[in-house]
């Protein structure tokens, strides 16, 4: 049974902003990473790839050159292109059944680079999220978190000034933000979050070591204290090759109904 694309993919189109060779590269890279082409398996010939993607030979070669430069394939003259073992750092494994406790654990297992740290007037959106008056002063911190020296998240946090004044920039480099809240005497009780898909822009891409336009996991989270008062609004972008969100579900409802209910979630 042949492994790979069996028909011309609609992903590769002239109307898409990304260059054609990049589109070919992205599709082939994903197939290699996903194991569609295990280590030692030959990719389709250049001629076959031309036909599959409906592109020129030079476009195919540029995509293959990039895969070879990244160590994802080895090119053997007269024999073809062969997938190589994919080396990735082990995933971050943190159960979200106890989300806040495990987010704290994640902070202790990883290290952070502080990109920006200042106090700014809250925009209307940020003020609404934190239930403050528009223009109220909030602490804004931008961080990149790393796992085994690999950047995996771009984090922008907004904290009410009264909360943020309990710690400084140096402490953000040393301790997880949730730990600093607890040290300040705040009881972190719950969080509400939404998850969506985002694209890496010109600022985020180099910091996360991904291509401009690469798909990212976007998370927005509001953290509240025991009184239900918001004490943090987070906007986070995660690399999906390192961070995953998993959910377990069970069927609920009457026999004629089919309703899925969340029984536990995991991020990795």
TrEMBL record:
<dbReference type="InterPro" id="IPR000524">
    <property type="entry name" value="Tscrpt_reg_HTH_GntR"/>
</dbReference>
<feature type="domain" description="HTH gntR-type">
    <location>
        <begin position="18"/>
        <end position="86"/>
    </location>
</feature>
<dbReference type="GO" id="GO:0003677">
    <property type="term" value="F:DNA binding"/>
</dbReference>
<dbReference type="InterPro" id="IPR028978">
    <property type="entry name" value="Chorismate_lyase_/UTRA_dom_sf"/>
</dbReference>
<dbReference type="InterPro" id="IPR036388">
    <property type="entry name" value="WH-like_DNA-bd_sf"/>
</dbReference>
<dbReference type="Pfam" id="PF00392">
    <property type="entry name" value="GntR"/>
</dbReference>
<dbReference type="InterPro" id="IPR001034">
    <property type="entry name" value="DeoR_HTH"/>
</dbReference>
<keyword id="KW-0238">DNA-binding</keyword>
<dbReference type="GO" id="GO:0003700">
    <property type="term" value="F:DNA-binding transcription factor activity"/>
</dbReference>
<dbReference type="InterPro" id="IPR036390">
    <property type="entry name" value="WH_DNA-bd_sf"/>
</dbReference>
<protein>
    <submittedName>
        <fullName>GntR family transcriptional regulator</fullName>
    </submittedName>
</protein>
<dbReference type="GO" id="GO:0045892">
    <property type="term" value="P:negative regulation of DNA-templated transcription"/>
</dbReference>
<keyword id="KW-0805">Transcription regulation</keyword>
<dbReference type="Pfam" id="PF07702">
    <property type="entry name" value="UTRA"/>
</dbReference>
<keyword id="KW-0804">Transcription</keyword>
<dbReference type="InterPro" id="IPR011663">
    <property type="entry name" value="UTRA"/>
</dbReference>
<dbReference type="InterPro" id="IPR050679">
    <property type="entry name" value="Bact_HTH_transcr_reg"/>
</dbReference>
């Amino acid at each position: 049974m042949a492994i790979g694309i069996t028909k011309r993919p609609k992903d590769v189109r002239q109307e898409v902003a990304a260059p054609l060779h990049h589109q070919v590269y992205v599709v082939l890279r994903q197939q290699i990473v996903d194991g569609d082409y295990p280590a030692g398996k030959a990719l389709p010939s250049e001629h076959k790839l031309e036909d599959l993607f409906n592109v020129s030979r030079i476009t195919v070669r540029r995509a293959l050159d990039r895969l070879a430069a990244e160590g994802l394939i080895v090119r053997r003259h007269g024999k073809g292109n062969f997938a190589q073992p994919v080396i990735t750092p082990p995933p971050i494994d943190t159960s979200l059944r106890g989300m806040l406790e495990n987010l704290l654990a994640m902070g202790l297992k990883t290290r952070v680079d502080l990109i920006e740290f200042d106090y700014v007037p809250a925009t209307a959106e940020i003020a609404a999220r934190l239930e403050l008056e528009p223009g109220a002063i909030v602490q804004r911190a931008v961080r990149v978190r790393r796992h085994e020296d690999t950047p995996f998240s771009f984090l922008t946090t907004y904290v009410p000034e009264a909360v943020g004044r309990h710690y400084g920039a140096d402490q953000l480099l040393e301790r997880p933000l949730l730990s600093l809240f607890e040290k300040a005497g705040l009881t972190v009780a719950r969080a509400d979050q939404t998850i969506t898909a985002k694209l890496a822009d010109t600022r985020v891409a180099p910091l996360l070591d991904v291509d401009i336009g690469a798909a990212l996991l976007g998370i927005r989270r509001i953290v509240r204290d025991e009184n239900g008062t918001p004490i943090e609004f987070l906007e986070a972008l995660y690399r999906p090759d390192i961070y995953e969100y998993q959910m377990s579900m069970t069927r609920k409802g009457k026999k004629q109904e089919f309703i899925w209910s969340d029984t536990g979630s995991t991020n990795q």
